[in-house]
Each structure stands twice: as structure tokens, then as C-alpha cells.
Amino acid sequence: MDPNISKLLDEIPEKSPRSKLEVHADVIAALRQKRRTYREIAEFFREHLAITVAPSTIHDFVRVRRRRGKRNAVTSSESNRMFPRPATATLPTDDDAQRKIAAVKRRTPAKQPRPLFTYEEDEPLTLRRKPDSDKVD
Fold first, then answer.
1. Is 70:64 a contact under the CB 8 Å cutoff?
2. pTM of this prediction?
3. What is the DSSP code string of 53-100?
4. Which of 14, 31, 49, 82 has fewest C-beta within 10 Å?
């Protein structure tokens, strides 16, 4: 990079975090690891840190930082470690999806069932009692 541009970038001050929870990310992560609900975390913040925050705000904060590739105050690997995905949430991989698509393409189409009724224009509708093995549709 050009030294002049690098110098200009160094002179630009960093913005403060957009979320009041950003500085408490480690506290939230520790409470979530102790299996505390978002409501319990909100109560903890109100009682011990004098911060009023809605449980849904904490949920959104955790969800945004859990996303892969998102780089806020912590790196992606740190974020995944601090806010791990629940063990039950397993996402299918591209290979799984490709295998399922290939399996659907290999399936043979189901035979069309023979109609139960026969229709001829000049005759009434009649129920077919036995399947016609010699007739081709």
C-alpha cells in the first residue's frame, strides 16, 4: 500500500461500538455457556451492571456475532468460540444437497395408475372392474 494512504488511514480515528453490549460480549458469552436464558442475562445486566436491555436485543447481538464471516470487535474464530452454535443445529453441506439432487434425478417416474372409469363420448361413464392388461394408454 502507498505510504501516504497508509498514513492517512492511521490518522482516521476508530468509531465507537454501535452496540452498548459490545464491551460486554465476554460476559454474555460466559453466561450463555452457563446456559442462562436471554431473559436471565437481561436481569443480570440490570441488577449488576445498571444496563437496561431487552432479552431480544441480547439474542440479536449473539445471533449477529455468531454468523460466519462477520468481523466486528472480535475475529470470526473468536466469535464462533464465544458464541458457539447449538449442537442440535446442523446445517447440510453442499455435498449433502448435491447427493440428494442426484438421488432425485436417478429415481424412475412412478407409473400412472389406470383410471377407475372409462369414458367414451357417446356412452355413459362406466366403472372399470378389472384392469385391462392388453389395453395400452
1. yes
2. 0.44
3. --HHHHHHHHHHHHSTT--SSS-HHHHHHHSPPPTT--PPPHHHHHHH
4. 14
3: left (phi over 0), alpha (psi -120 to 50) or beta: alpha
Q: Could you give the CA distance from residue 112 to residue 18 in angstroms, rounded to a whole number? A: 61
Residues 6+ positions from 45 with CB-CB distance below 8 Å: 24, 51, 52, 53, 58
Cell 436464558 belongs to which residue? 37
What is the full DSSP assignment across 9-47?
Answer: HHHSPPPPPSSTTGGGHHHHHHHHHTT--HHHHHHHIII
